[in-house]
């Protein structure tokens, strides 16, 4: 038990952690066929938008609310051209700049909303599912009540309530509105899975070992539940983009002074469309479609690779050499 | 070890104080009723999984708890481990009453009493490596925080249970191991804190035949090295014979026979034990014995038979065994099912009409004949049934059969719960033995 009984300190534990990571990503590396295509296509599209969002100040030719450059005002409703690749709007702002900055807004809101929804929904689901009883019943009733409303309606109500508060009509407001809409979903998924895991022998074994409920939930339940979350969260992100765009379209989302937002831009472009001005609506619309498609592909791909029920092991076909003539 | 165990008498003074002493333990589960029942908070009844069990487990012995599925043997083990709450009764473990300990205080008991479950595939957390799982008890109880020393102790334990070299298993996940290897890891995890008692709940029944004997041998070797006491729960009398010092036979929540393993095999007393022993497959067809296995199925533990729980299936049942209304219904329905389509059966069914009045358990039956029938006809029919099969034990229980006040009256001998009584080397709960029925 002396200190010198320490060959190569820490190394086995570090290796174990690496192996755990390798194990967690193994199904992704081993994905084949459609799942693999979906996974990588979705990841590429999503990554493209993440790059746009992160490097918006470098990529975008102008700021999202800029309407003049070098003292010269941009033309109004100009066709796409070399100076303005996606044209300009009625307020003389550059459509491409708004699309690029819009990516930043969308991803920021969705990221904040997902983090909040997960940090609220997952622990509540774990507690509710593991302990059951009156707490579980009360939470289920509340969550079901929230679940019964359409997402958009809840988001509008929350956004409306918050717009008068000190938070105002910014990114945080939109994120909170989306969070409230999605917490019940995570809660349900996690709770139901925990209830089925609670009957597993290894949870009983942990109790018999003397583990506290906290330890059981953390070490025995959480790690087995959490695998479900990435696909759901990714699919949800796609949904949240649509929700945010819808809020913006209806005027309850990000206020124009706070950032560029695709839904808001489409709303402004509605009147343009009838007069043959297609570029103000098309590009933000395409951006929404593309990002949502990317996230959906990624989510479905993850679902198919991580979910053991859907995952199908592929076996290579074995072709035998034809038997020589004389043996037939 | 074995011969000494065979002569252990349960005299209170002679034996050292038992490690575990169970007294009149009952564990009932409430049944979730229909949706409507649940809405109004009404309970649909209770299952008496463990229904008045008293037994001692002595230090250093292997006590086998044998019974069919549904006999309550697993629930008894779970109650002992504090995984199921006892409804009433006491369990003394190392001199401490544990059935009413709050979870927090039970944790100390758990260092002393461990469990190996039936299904090795489900007993290990799939998200933890073998090393983490086996070492986790140390962390749970805060006994070893130094990770290198912990790894060392886990390695020692793994090699002790036959997972050698430990390095090859420490960082594997349960899904990488075979069933036998997993069960070895589960045993390592159970024993790493040096408990005095191990509840082994069918530890080999999910394993391949080739692995079973090895795991049982390992358990015996570990018992010797670690000075353990086992409660070995199984449905398999064949392995129990090889493994146990004493055996308790359980049926529907009660112990019907308990005694030294050798005595139980040599001279089974209780008709149920005899039936179980006859049910052990005999590989040599030349020596195969006729198997008059108990008729019927294990009854519903929510509404166990009156008197001796085994009496409806017992070939030796007689007057005091607890004959009652439901036995009559069973008898009639079995008869009609057997003779279905034969002449006269339909008339007989029509004569008795609705039998649901017989579902209330009672040793005194009064039921009216269906409209347009006289009770005398039913009594005559019953007499005819009796005369066709006078050997049927049911009729021994009938004290009185007559028509009275336009009802059929059927009185059985009053039911008696047989208690465990010393008979030769074993204790048996059966009216065939011991003193006159109380």
Structure, explained:
The complex is a heterodimer of chains A (328) and B (438). By secondary structure, chain A is mostly helical. Chain A has one domain: MetI-like (MetI-like fold, Orthogonal Bundle). In chain A, 68% of the residues lie in helices and 1% in strands. Chain A has 12 helices and 2 strands. Chain A has helices spanning 11-29, 33-54, 56-59, 95-131, 133-148, 151-163, 171-198, 201-209, 213-225, 229-250, 262-273, 279-306; strands at residues 68-69, 72-73. Chain A has a two-stranded antiparallel sheet with strand order 1-2. In chain A, a hairpin with a 2-residue loop joins strand 1 and strand 2. In chain A, helix 10 runs antiparallel to helix 12. The longest helix of chain A has 37 residues, at 95-131. Chain A starts with 10 loop residues before the first helix and ends in a 22-residue tail after the last helix. With 438 residues, chain B is of the alpha/beta class. Chain B has a domain at 323-412. Chain B is 35% helix and 20% strand. Chain B has 17 helices and 15 strands. In chain B, helix 6 crosses helix 7. The longest helix of chain B is centred in the middle third of the chain and has 18 residues, at 209-226. Chain B starts with a helix and ends in a 10-residue tail after the last strand. Residues 1-14 of chain B have low confidence and may be disordered. Classes of the chains: A mainly alpha (328), B alpha/beta (438). The A-B interface holds A 1, 5-6, 9, 12-13, 15-16, 19-20, 23, 200-202, 204-212, 215, 219-220, 223-224 and B 81-83, 106-108, 110-111, 114-115, 117-119, 122-129, 131, 136-137, 140-141, 147-149, 151-152, 170-171, 173, 186, 189.
């Amino acid at each position: 038990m002396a200190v010198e009984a320490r060959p190569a300190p820490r190394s086995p534990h570090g290796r174990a952690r690496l192996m755990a990571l390798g194990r967690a990503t193994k199904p992704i590396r081993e994905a084949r066929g459609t799942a693999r295509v979906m996974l990588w296509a979705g990841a590429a599209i999503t990554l493209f938008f993440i790059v746009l969002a992160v490097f918006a100040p470098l990529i975008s030719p102008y700021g999202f609310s800029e309407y003049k450059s070098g003292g010269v005002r941009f033309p109004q409703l100009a066709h796409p051209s070399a100076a303005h690749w996606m044209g300009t709007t009625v307020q003389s702002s550059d459509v491409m700049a708004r699309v690029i900055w819009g990516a930043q807004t969308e991803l920021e809101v969705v990221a904040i909303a997902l983090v909040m929804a997960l940090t609220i929904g997952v622990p509540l689901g774990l507690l509710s599912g593991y302990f059951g009883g009156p707490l579980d019943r009360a939470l289920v009733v509340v969550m079901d009540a929230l679940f019964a409303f359409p997402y958009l309606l809840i988001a509008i109500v929350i956004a409306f309530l918050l717009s008068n508060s000190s938070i105002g009509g910014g990114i945080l407001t939109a994120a909170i509105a989306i969070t409230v809409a999605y917490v019940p979903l995570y809660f349900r998924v996690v709770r139901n899975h925990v209830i089925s895991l609670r009957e597993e022998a290894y949870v009983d074994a942990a109790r018999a070992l003397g583990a506290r409920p906290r330890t059981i939930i953390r070490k025995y339940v959480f790690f087995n539940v959490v695998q479900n979350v990435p696909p759901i969260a990714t699919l949800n992100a796609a949904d949240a983009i649509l929700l945010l765009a819808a809020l913006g379209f209806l005027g309850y989302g990000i206020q124009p002074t706070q950032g560029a937002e695709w839904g808001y831009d489409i709303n402004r472009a509605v009147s343009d469309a009838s007069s043959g001005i297609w570029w103000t609506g098309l590009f933000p619309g395409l951006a929404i479609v593309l990002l949502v498609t990317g996230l959906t592909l990624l989510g479905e791909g993850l679902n198919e690779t991580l979910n053991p029920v859907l995952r199908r092991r592929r076996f290579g076909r074995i072709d035998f050499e034809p038997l020589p003539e004389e043996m037939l | 070890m074995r011969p000494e165990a065979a002569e252990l008498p349960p005299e209170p003074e002679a034996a050292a104080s038992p490690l575990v002493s169970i007294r009149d333990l009952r564990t009932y589960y409430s049944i979730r009723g229909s949706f409507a029942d649940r809405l109004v908070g009404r309970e649909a009844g209770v299952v008496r999984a463990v229904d008045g069990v008293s037994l001692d487990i002595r230090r250093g012995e292997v006590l086998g708890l044998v019974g069919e599925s549904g006999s309550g043997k697993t629930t008894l083990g779970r109650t002992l481990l504090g995984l199921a709450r006892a409804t009433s009764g006491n369990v003394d473990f190392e001199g401490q009453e544990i059935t009413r300990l709050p979870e927090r205080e039970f944790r100390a008991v758990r260092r002393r009493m461990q469990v190996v479950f039936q299904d090795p595939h489900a007993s290990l957390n799939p998200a933890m490596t073998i090393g983490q799982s086996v070492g986790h008890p140390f962390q749970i109880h805060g006994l070893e925080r130094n990770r290198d020393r912990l790894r060392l102790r886990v390695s020692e334990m793994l090699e002790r249970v036959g997972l050698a070299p430990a390095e090859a298993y420490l960082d594997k996940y349960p899904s990488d191991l075979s069933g036998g290897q997993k069960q070895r890891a589960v045993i390592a995890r159970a024993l790493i804190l040096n408990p005095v008692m191990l509840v082994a709940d069918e530890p080999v029944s999910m394993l391949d035949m080739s692995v079973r004997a090895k795991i049982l041998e390992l358990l015996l070797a570990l018992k010797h090295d670690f000075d353990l006491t086992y409660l070995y729960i199984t449905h398999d009398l064949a392995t129990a014979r090889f493994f146990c010092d004493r055996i308790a036979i359980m049926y529907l929540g009660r112990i019907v026979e308990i005694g030294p393993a050798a005595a139980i095999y040599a001279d089974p007393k209780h008709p149920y034990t005899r039936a179980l022993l006859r049910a052990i497959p005999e590989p040599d067809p030349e020596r195969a014995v006729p198997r008059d296995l108990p008729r019927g199925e294990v009854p519903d533990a929510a509404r166990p038979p009156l008197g001796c729980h085994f009496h409806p299936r017992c070939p030796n049942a007689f007057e005091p065994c607890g004959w009652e209304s439901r036995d009559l219904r069973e008898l009639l329905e079995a008869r009609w099912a057997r003779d279905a389509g034969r002449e006269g059966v339909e008339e007989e069914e029509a004569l008795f009409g609705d039998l649901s009045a017989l579902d209330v358990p009672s040793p005194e039956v009064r039921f009216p004949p269906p409209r347009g029938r006289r009770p005398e006809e039913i009594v005559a029919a019953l007499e005819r049934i009796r005369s066709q099969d006078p050997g049927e034990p049911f009729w021994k229980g009938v004290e009185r059969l007559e028509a009275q006040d336009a009802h059929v009256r059927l009185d059985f001998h009053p039911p008696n719960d047989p208690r465990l009584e010393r008979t030769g080397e074993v204790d048996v709960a059966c009216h065939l033995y011991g003193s006159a029925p109380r």
